[in-house]
Amino acid sequence: MTSTGALTHAPWSARAWRDTTFVAAGVPVQLAAFVVLMSPWTVWVPVTTTEILLALVVPLALILVGAHALTAAQRRRFWALLGMDVPATAESLSWRGVTASVRSEATWRQVGYHLVAGPVLAAGGVLTVLTWAAGFALATVFGYGWAFPRSLRPGGWTGRDAYLTLAGLLLLLAAPWVAAGVTRLDSRLAASLLGPSRAKELQRRVEDLTESRAGVVDAADTERRRIERDLHDGAQQRLVSLALNLGLARETLTDVPDDAMRVIVEAHEEAKEALTELRDLVRGLHPAVLDARGLDAALSGIAARAPLPVRLRVDVPERASPTVEAVAYFVASEALTNVSRHARASHMEITVERLDGVLRMVLSDDGVGGADPSGGTGLAGLARRVRSVDGTFRITSPPGGPTIITAELPCES
């Protein structure tokens, strides 16, 4: 036992009193179901089979209906005293839904907590309170005499008083550990029995992560569109104006020295190159034509600019979400770049169609094949981009070709 652990569980520590308050407050709620179950047996003694069944079934039905309220009370206790959030289950227990509740796994886990774990934990709470009370009583046994009238005071210190005082001090030292043990057991049982099952909790986490990832992807795409608009309306327009002014000066200023004209010409050419690079950058961030005219027009633009013939067929009667369209555009753009750089292909085909809520892209070329996503050609990045919207990515590229890339994107993403 480390010194830190001893100080944490010292009788005067805040944690000791917090745990004690927690386990003591749980005793009434934890005994409620057990009291309901045993109450018929305190009123009369069932003899016949019918009476025994009634004495068991009626209290159990009441517990089934009231388990939701008991569980809610326990959740509030955990949150108020420990700051522990026990997630609620989706099932709601009521008279109207008794049949569904009986079939629910969550219901029986809650009933198991209230009927089986509850009395055991209540006993732990009572034991904790008794340990504190006995410890205080025994540790102060020598001081009792001073509370009596002088004529009734016991004699001086005796060996028995010393042993009782020592026992009381030991109980005071043990009480925080008892409270902590009951608290830890109650927390574990509540997490496993009162909250969602492990499978439901994992399912909930997967849904939360999927939703969060979709939000991040949408936010990133929105930010790219914002940057594209800012560059298009700001820096790009300034460069256009600069290039026009330098071009005008280049054509109209005929009486300037040759050195000055050479500087103007170089500046004009640099401005035009910077404008071209900025346009490529803006197009790579998010093409404005994709938002304005859709996927067909955007893909037609990159096909027209490709260094090899591209056959394009787009059959998308209904537009997908902006995020999915952006992913489809960048998949086609990056694949076309890879083909022009590495495949040594003579032509490429791109087919895009929407079938049953899925945007399906097939990109093929007649190049040398042998494309490997682990080879650093950008294919791994394409796969990650497709998977970011829960899509699927497949590539077939035997040596000698052809290379076929298939990407399927859910349009509801």
From TrEMBL:
<keyword id="KW-0547">Nucleotide-binding</keyword>
<feature type="transmembrane region" description="Helical">
    <location>
        <begin position="113"/>
        <end position="142"/>
    </location>
</feature>
<dbReference type="Pfam" id="PF13796">
    <property type="entry name" value="Sensor"/>
</dbReference>
<keyword id="KW-1133">Transmembrane helix</keyword>
<dbReference type="InterPro" id="IPR050482">
    <property type="entry name" value="Sensor_HK_TwoCompSys"/>
</dbReference>
<feature type="domain" description="Putative sensor">
    <location>
        <begin position="22"/>
        <end position="194"/>
    </location>
</feature>
<dbReference type="GO" id="GO:0016020">
    <property type="term" value="C:membrane"/>
</dbReference>
<dbReference type="InterPro" id="IPR011712">
    <property type="entry name" value="Sig_transdc_His_kin_sub3_dim/P"/>
</dbReference>
<dbReference type="GO" id="GO:0000155">
    <property type="term" value="F:phosphorelay sensor kinase activity"/>
</dbReference>
<dbReference type="Pfam" id="PF07730">
    <property type="entry name" value="HisKA_3"/>
</dbReference>
<keyword id="KW-0418">Kinase</keyword>
<dbReference type="GO" id="GO:0046983">
    <property type="term" value="F:protein dimerization activity"/>
</dbReference>
<keyword id="KW-0808">Transferase</keyword>
<keyword id="KW-0597">Phosphoprotein</keyword>
<feature type="domain" description="Signal transduction histidine kinase subgroup 3 dimerisation and phosphoacceptor">
    <location>
        <begin position="223"/>
        <end position="290"/>
    </location>
</feature>
<dbReference type="GO" id="GO:0005524">
    <property type="term" value="F:ATP binding"/>
</dbReference>
<dbReference type="Pfam" id="PF02518">
    <property type="entry name" value="HATPase_c"/>
</dbReference>
<keyword id="KW-0067">ATP-binding</keyword>
<protein>
    <recommendedName>
        <fullName>histidine kinase</fullName>
        <ecNumber>2.7.13.3</ecNumber>
    </recommendedName>
</protein>
<dbReference type="InterPro" id="IPR025828">
    <property type="entry name" value="Put_sensor_dom"/>
</dbReference>
<feature type="transmembrane region" description="Helical">
    <location>
        <begin position="52"/>
        <end position="73"/>
    </location>
</feature>
<keyword id="KW-0902">Two-component regulatory system</keyword>
<dbReference type="InterPro" id="IPR036890">
    <property type="entry name" value="HATPase_C_sf"/>
</dbReference>
<dbReference type="InterPro" id="IPR003594">
    <property type="entry name" value="HATPase_dom"/>
</dbReference>
<feature type="transmembrane region" description="Helical">
    <location>
        <begin position="21"/>
        <end position="40"/>
    </location>
</feature>
<keyword id="KW-0812">Transmembrane</keyword>
<feature type="domain" description="Histidine kinase/HSP90-like ATPase">
    <location>
        <begin position="329"/>
        <end position="411"/>
    </location>
</feature>
<feature type="transmembrane region" description="Helical">
    <location>
        <begin position="162"/>
        <end position="182"/>
    </location>
</feature>
<keyword id="KW-0472">Membrane</keyword>
